[in-house]
Backbone:
């Protein structure tokens, strides 16, 4: 009798562990959510900080799509973006400006960032346009 209960408990534990593993794997494959990065590029001659906050809101409806906003020193960027997943990496591309966009106009399809999941944090590889505009540098982290 005790042996049967022991096997029942062991079976339930294995099923629960299996269900948890499936859920974790599903989370790793889904890139929907908010991603935020901040970058400061020094100070102006008057001492004002030159800082930027970048936010991506990414959804999934057959394909990844969303918005990008950049707020900071002398800018207010509002743009539509889309993403592609390849080899466990999400690459976000510029799609089109929104009505209130000011100061960041690049061609559709310009790479904004590629995000991959490291062991402890997200790794961002920024596109050349983002670095050229000084919104980020190569080491800017994304959360």
Residues:
């Amino acid at each position: 009798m005790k042996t049967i209960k022991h096997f029942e408990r062991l079976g339930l534990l294995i099923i629960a562990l299996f269900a948890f593993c499936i859920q974790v794997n599903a989370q790793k494959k889904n890139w929907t959510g908010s991603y935020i990065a901040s970058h400061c590029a020094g100070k102006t001659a008057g001492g004002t900080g030159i800082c930027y906050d970048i936010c991506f809101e990414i959804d999934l409806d057959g394909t990844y799509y969303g918005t990008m906003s950049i707020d900071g020193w002398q800018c207010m960027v509002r743009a539509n973006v889309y993403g592609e997943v390849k080899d466990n990496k999400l690459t976000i591309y510029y799609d089109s400006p929104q009505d209130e966009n000011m100061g960041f106009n690049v061609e559709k399809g310009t790479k904004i960032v590629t995000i991959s999941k490291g062991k402890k944090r997200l790794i961002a590889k920024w596109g050349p346009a983002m670095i050229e505009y000084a919104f980020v540098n190569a080491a800017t982290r994304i959360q």
In short: The beta strands are 33-43, 49-61, 63-72, 75-86, 89-97, 111-117, 122-126. The longest helix spans residues 2-29.
